[in-house]
């Protein structure tokens, strides 16, 4: 019975139809009479853990901001949290994600720390569509994503640059399959640095996905452990140059435990100024040659579209 029919029934046959106003909430015991207790309590636990995980990012922002005021040494935070979170759209979950931790931290940074300009770099192999959607029309938060073209969730086209007041405060850089270290280094040096310098951020937040590694099963970019060392090192330098070293990394994707652990460890080595361990942990013999022509062609396309 549709809502219109119910209203008519209540109006003309009120004595025969009772509209129940007071109803109770089902208890966990009620739900567990059908569903397993592990499933029921798991849902409750997931929500509480999601709040804790989101709080990790906020605490790191607090620490990094405070440290930057008393030390000349760049303060970098790294939230070792799972699952990845950058796919959550404003109205609901998506892609393993419950809450958008980077987006939440960006808003917190503005509202509670007085840092208005937030630069977000997302180098997960998948496009951070959730973060993209939250800040699509926001001129004070610059969202930049590198990701594999055509991969899940098939968003992040090159012409997606924001809208209204936020137009131009967004840069999506889809990379073709089998792009690797040469492409990523070139994109960082030629494309990423300039908009960051122009934007003049107060803090840099990073969605650090390690699923672009050549050994990762979910995509076919061919980043190496050294690629992630380079990214961590260059982002650290960029933060030191632009925003007193204030920078927080948030762990996103990475589904081969060996490449994930090696790459995260190498990121920490970059933070503390130790050399990369790439030669000891990676077998580079299985890499395909990258076409320098294709890399240059892609860079020219990006520069032309965004008028860099």
Mean pLDDT: 88
Give helix % range. 40-55%
Which H/E pattern describes the elements? HHHEHEHEEHEHEHHH
Write down the CATH topology: Arginase, Chain A
Count of helices? Answer: 10
Largest sheet: 6 strands, parallel
Strand order of the largest sheet: 1-6-5-2-3-4
Structural class, judged by helices and strands? alpha/beta
Which percent band covers the strand fraction? 5-15%
Shape: globular
User: End-to-end span in angstroms?
Assistant: 58 Å
Describe this structure as you would to a colleague:
This protein has 308 residues and is of the alpha/beta class. The chain has a single domain (36-306), classed as Histone deacetylase domain (Arginase, Chain A, 3-Layer(aba) Sandwich), CATH 3.40.800.20. The protein contains ten helices and six strands; from the N terminus they run αααβαβαββαβαβααα. Strands 1-6-5-2-3-4 form a six-stranded parallel β-sheet, sandwiched between helices. Helix 5 (129-134) links the parallel strand 2 and strand 3 (141-148). The longest helix has 32 residues, at 37-68. The radius of gyration is 23 Å and the shape is globular. The model has no long low-confidence stretch (mean pLDDT 88).
């Amino acid at each position: 019975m549709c809502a219109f029919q119910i209203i008519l029934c209540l109006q003309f046959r009120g004595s025969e139809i009772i509209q129940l106003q007071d109803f109770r909430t089902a208890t966990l015991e009620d739900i567990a009479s059908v569903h397993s207790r592990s499933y029921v309590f798991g849902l409750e636990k997931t929500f509480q853990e999601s709040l804790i995980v989101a709080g990790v990012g906020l605490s790191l922002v607090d620490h990094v901001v405070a440290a930057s005021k008393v030390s000349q040494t760049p303060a970098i935070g790294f939230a070792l949290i799972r699952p990845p979170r950058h796919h959550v759209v404003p109205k609901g979950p998506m892609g393993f994600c419950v809450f958008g931790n980077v987006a939440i931290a960006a808003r917190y940074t503005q509202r509670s720390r007085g840092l208005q300009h937030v630069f977000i770099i997302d180098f997960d192999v998948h496009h951070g569509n959730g973060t993209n959607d939250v800040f699509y029309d926001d001129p004070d938060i610059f969202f930049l994503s590198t990701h594999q073209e055509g991969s899940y969730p098939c968003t992040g086209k090159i012409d997606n640059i924001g809208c209204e007041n936020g137009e131009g405060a967004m840069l999506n850089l889809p990379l073709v399959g089998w792009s690797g270290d040469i492409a990523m280094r070139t994109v960082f040096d030629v494309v990423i640095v300039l908009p960051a310098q122009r934007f003049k951020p107060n803090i840099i937040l990073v969605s650090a996905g390690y699923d672009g590694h050549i050994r990762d099963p979910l995509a076919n970019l061919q980043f190496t452990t050294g690629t992630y060392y380079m990214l961590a090192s260059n982002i650290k330098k960029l933060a030191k140059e632009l925003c007193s070293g204030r920078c927080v990394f948030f762990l996103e994707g990475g589904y081969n435990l060996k490449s994930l652990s090696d790459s995260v460890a190498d990121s920490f080595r970059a933070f503390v100024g130790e050399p990369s361990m790439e030669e000891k942990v990676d077998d580079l013999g299985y890499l395909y040659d990258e076409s320098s022509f294709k890399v240059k062609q892609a860079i020219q396309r990006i520069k032309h579209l965004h008028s860099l």
